[in-house]
Amino acid sequence: MSIADQALTDDLAARRDMIVCRGVKKWFGDFQALRGVDVTVKDREVMVVLGPSGSGKSTLIRCINRLEVHQEGDIVVDGVELTNDTRNIEKIRSEVGMVFQQFNLFPHLTVLDNITLAPIWVRKKAKAEAERTAMELLERVGIPEQAAKFPGQLSGGQQQRVAIARSLAMEPKIMLFDEPTSALDPEMIAEVLDVMKDLARGGMTMMVVTHEMGFAREVADRLVFMESGDVVEVGTPEHFFTNPKEERTKLFLSQIL
Amino acid sequence: MSEITAPIETRPEEPSHTAGRWIRDNLFSSVSNTIQTVVFSAIVLGLLRWILGQVFSEDADWSSVATNLRLLMSYNYPTEQFVRIWVAAAAIFLMLGLSLGAWGIDPGFSVRRSARTLISTGVFALVVRLLLPSSTPDAIAMAMIVIGVVAIVIGGVVMRAVPKSSDRRVSFTAALGVMVGLVLAVVWLVPFGSYGVAEGERYAVPGVTVASSTKVPWTIVLLLVFFAQILGRRLGVSVGSVIRRSIVAFWVIGPAFIIFLVLRDPSFDWAHVWSTDVPMAAAFALGGGALLYALGRPGRDDLARVVGALLLALALFHWVAAFFGWYPMLQKARISFLLIALAVLLVPTFAGERSARVRFAGAWVGFMVVLHWLITGINTPSTLEISAPPFLGGLVLTVGIAYYVMLVSFPLGVLLSLARTSKMPIFRVMSTTYIEVIRGVPLITVLFFFSIMLPLFLPRGMGISDLAAVFAGYTVFSAAYMAENIRGGLQSVRRGQYEAADALGLTTVQRTTLIVLPQALRVSIPNLVGQAIATFKETSLIAIVGGFDLLRIANSTIPNQPDFLGQKRPGLLFISLVYFVVAYTMSKSSQRLEARLQAGQAR
Fold first, then answer.
1. pLDDT at B316 exceeding the cut of 80
2. Is A151 an interface residue toward B (CB < 8 Å)?
3. What are the structural domains, with CATH classification, of chain B?
């Protein structure tokens, strides 16, 4: 059994592969950020990626929608392999939602326009339809009354919820979260995590880089622990929080819990 | 939660300080401050006194300006054709008014602030009255006192009536109405003096208002702005997106029509246009469009390639025939044949569903219309080619050159800045070289190059008019500076914006036009307006390559007229005022624009 398939329950194993990373390596200059990562994310699975800073976890999920370009190994997203073919990349990006640590909302557009922009221009939806969907999504993340405001007028938690709604508007098959709560004030973390839990319950395939252990324990199907660009251990939350195998995992968990 | 809310204290009333208190606190708070105040007031007042002395000196013959107003405005533009300039001006002002109204986002002016401005204006008028030299006509001295007192009284009454905490605003419409009304009142009532014509010579008629041929059109144009603003506001509410799109379309296409309107030859041959140019454009546009639509149906790729190859052969044969002179054919027909052949060869790439075919054929039709219109326009004899004496000059030339230079150099600057920040080395190197070379060369050199050297490099038989050459020179120069200003804005857009756009699957073009440029341009506004003002003032260099702009008329044309020999001062003072008013308006509007854009996205 390869490391990528560790801790697969029978139920998960039977599902389709949504993200497959095989031997992914990535260098920034001379620094090797990823040292041959093997990870498989199954359909409707929630995978949480843990690790100390600099362990390459953000780099890994940024490689999956090609915000970073990996130099060796294969990444296959929903059956499409990531290559330099621009059409492939755009197709994958439009089906993989991404939520950033710094929200990265478009400051010159209203909340509503932030959400409808991609559906209108990439999916070629009619404006009225896109706006209807956007309002439903704002309803879902709990801030329909903010639709006409600009991002700069919202709190961090609200902005991050708008960012999630913006990604969902593209009806993605996969959602990537790159430390979605790390830039938030403590009292706003819960509101964002609630939205993410909702999504997970709705059956979204998710890959989440986070330090929120409560979220990981409650929602994740599997956890991945990375260090120095390597996948150290993969397992269920139960396995991780009760009986981790590797020394490095134990050390990390003891520091963070 | 409500029970633990702390009681809210009301903010203490700020002590209302009087004008005397303000003066003491800000101007005479300490010994050094007092010295500074006294010294700098003396310098400013002395300077003002000197300027007023120049304006109202007995040597200054202001009838040199009044008589030559027409010269200063449009130089030798044929009088009987003036209506064309007025129509062009009316079109621009009409659309200006509509734009102001249709977007309708100007918040108007704070009442208290306006009142304060009014009071300071009044004080300034009284100060001017005190500094007027003794040679000043009594009427002007009297007018200063009246203006000063009236402004201070009105301002004071408003200040008393409106409480300090009030944020009442004068609507933009009302403010515009007041401004238009003031200008019209001045034009119709103040005896600036006019001119008469006797035996072919113009002479000054002091003591009357501006000639009707000037004030009637100006009245119409200014009223147009006012009512168009109201109309635009109405339409903006009822059919917002339609009217806004039409206005944008006008600003993009309009200038080309206006330049055609102002510059075309009065004895323009419409018959040729209707009998040849229009039918040919229609034939290529519609025939080609139908062909492209038909060949774009899925499964006709091979047919399209065969037809394309045949058309290409035909098109090339036309060029060979032209080379040997076998049969006559208009050049643009040959060009169009070549283009339709290439378009047909492209069909397989764009073929597909009905909507895709409609779009492709539509693009062809639009392209043909624009191309034929441009070719026709270029080949149309225009007043540009009337060589001597130059007929267009003055303010129309100054504003016209500045306007078109900005219009063309702005998109060029955007492209250059994008190229300079591009990842593709060939674009980057080309753009950087261009920008650095142009920035390293004085504007005068560029202008000389375009007006004197460029014609030497052109193929034999191809000429370029002086005006077009100068225009090209300014554009090339201005584009390089615009590019650098916009690059500053591009660099301020954070990386996360690019990543967010990428992550949503936007293409590079969409990312640039929808996300990056709107943010970058917003940041660049102050610099871009600075560049626009610089361009506007630099148009005075046209004089050195033979153009008759405001400066040259004031500095050499008027002082050489027999009636006004050596009269430079009034003309120069007058054009300074004109330059200042235009530049200040641009600067102020850009500040309002900035404030408005910022208000939308406060961080």
1. yes
2. yes
3. 269-380 (no CATH), 386-603 (1.10.3720.10)
